[in-house]
Amino acid sequence: MSFYLYNTMTRNKEEFIPANKNKIGMYTCGPTVYNYAHIGNLRTYIFEDALKKSLEYVGYKVKHVMNVTDVGHLQSDGDEGEDKMALGASREHKTVWEIAKFYEDAFFEDCKKLNVKKPTVICRATEHIEDMIKFVQKLEERGYTYESNGNVYFEIDKFEDYTKLANLSIDELEAGSRIEIDPNKKNPLDFVLWFTNSKFSNQIMQWDSPWGRGFPGWHLECSTMSIKYLGENIDIHCGGIDHIPVHHTNEIAQSEAALGHKWVNYWVHGEFLVLDGGKMSKSSGDFLTVSKLEEEGFSPLDYRYFCLQSKYRKQLVFSFESLKDAQNGYKALKKKIGTILTNIDETNNINKELISGYQEKFKTQISDDLNIANAFTVLNEVIKDGELNNKEKAFLIEDFDKVFSLNLMTIEKEVIEVDEKLINHLIEERNIARKEKNYKRSDEIRAQLLDMNIEVLDSKEGTSWRVK
Ligand code: AMP
Ligand code: ZN
C-alpha cells in the first residue's frame, strides 16, 4: 500500500518513496531550551510523533533525529532581540548551561506524558560546534560565504532557487521576515553562519574558530547534524509552518550549497495551534504548558486526543471549552473500550481475515497524508461491529493504539465500577467453587478479576473486593 504525504516543496500530496528501501531518515527541528515548551510547540511534536508511528505501522523502520537548540542566541536570525538563554539564566539565577539542562529535561518529561516517543538520536547544538565549523569551511571553499565586520555570512544570491520552499519572491520573503537592517549584509536575506562580532559581547557560550572566537548562526545546527546522522539524502524533514520562509529556506540553501545536490525529499509542516485570542508566544512568558493544563484538570492525553482530532495541516484554535469537549470524547471512548476489555472470553478465536480487513482500512487512512480523524472512525467501527468478538476488538484496539498512543488498553477505574454486576457474579461463582473445594476454578476467577484490576479479599466475614 502506498503512503501519501503533502510535500511543502511541491505543494502536492505525493506518494512517499524512501531513498533507501525500508529505512527512513526523518529529521525534526527540536526545542529551544530556555523555557518550557508551550502547547503550540507540543502540537507540532505530537503530529511528528503520529507521522513517525504511522510510517512504522505500515512497515517502515524510521531513524528519527532531532536537535536541541541549547544556545539561546541562536533563536533569531540576525543579531537582534534578546539572548533568551541568558535572559532565562538571570531570571532564575542559574548558569546558561543549567538552564539548558533543566528545560531539556522538562521538555522530555512533557513528551513522556504526551506519549511522544524519544527520537533515535537527540543532538545538542553545543556538542557539535566542531562539525558546524567544518560545515562553514566547506561553504567557504565552495564560494558561498563572505566575511563582514567580523561575521561570516551566507550569500543567498550565489544560491540558485533560494525561494523554492517558500514559493515566494525575494521581495515577499523580505517583507515577511522582519529582518533587522544590517549594513554588513550584501542582501538583507543573507544570514549569519558564524558570529565573532555580536551585540552579545559578554556571551558565555563561545568557541574558537578560524574566524575568531564566537558562536554559530541559528540555522547551521540543523543542516550540520541532520547530515551527520542521516546522510546526504534525507527522506523527511518536519517542523512547524513558521519555519518555511526563514529557517528551512536557509537550511536548504546552506545544505544544498555544501552538498552540491538535492538534500531533502519531503518537507512536511504542521500548522499552528492558535489561541482564541491570538498567537501563542514563548518569549512573552505568558503561555500554556502541559502543567497548566493539568492544573485545570486535564490530563496530557486529553490534549493529545484533542490534537489528533484535527488535521495536522489545518490551524487548530485552542480554548478550554474545546479541550473539555475532547476530554469528554476521550473519556467516552475509554469507557466503551473498558467495557470490551473487561468482558473478554479468552476461549474465543481470532478471525484473521476480519482483523486484517480492519488493519487495511486503518492503514488506508493513516497513509492518506495522516488522516488520523478518519482512523478514529475505523476504531469506532471496530467498537460497534457486531461480528467481532471482544478478543478481536481488543486485538485491534491495541494495534491501532501503536499510532494513537492514547493508552487505550489501560482500563480506568471508573469503567470497572460500571461493571460491578459482572464482578459480583464472578465473586459468587468463586464462592461456590470454594465451597465445592474446586480451588483450581476459584484461583482462575481470582486471576480473571486481577486482570480487571480487582483484588479479592477473603475474611471471616466473607469475601469482598476492591479496585487495585
Ligand atoms: P521552538 O522551540 O520555538 O523552536 O519551536 C519548536 C517547534 O514548535 C517548531 O517546529 C515550531 O515550528 C513549532 N511551533 C512554534 N509555535 C507553534 C504553534 N503555535 N503551534 C504549532 N507549532 C508551533
Ligand atoms: Zn531546524
Q: What's the CATH C level of the largest domain?
A: Alpha Beta
Q: What is the terminal separation in angstroms?
A: 43 Å
Total number of strands: 15
Query: How many strands, what sense, and barrel or not for the largest sheet?
Result: 5 strands, parallel
Query: What is the total number of structural domains?
Result: 3
User: What is the typical, i.e. mean, pLDDT?
Assistant: 91
Q: Largest sheet, order of strands side by side?
A: 5-4-3-10-11
Inertia-based shape:
elongated
Over all CA atoms, what is the radius of gyration?
A: 27 Å
Query: Could you say what the CATH architecture of the largest domain is?
Result: 3-Layer(aba) Sandwich
Binned, the helix content reads 40-55%
Structural class: alpha/beta
Tally of contiguous helical segments = 16
- Portion of residues in beta strands equals 15-25%
- The CATH topology label of the largest domain is Rossmann fold
Low-confidence stretches: none
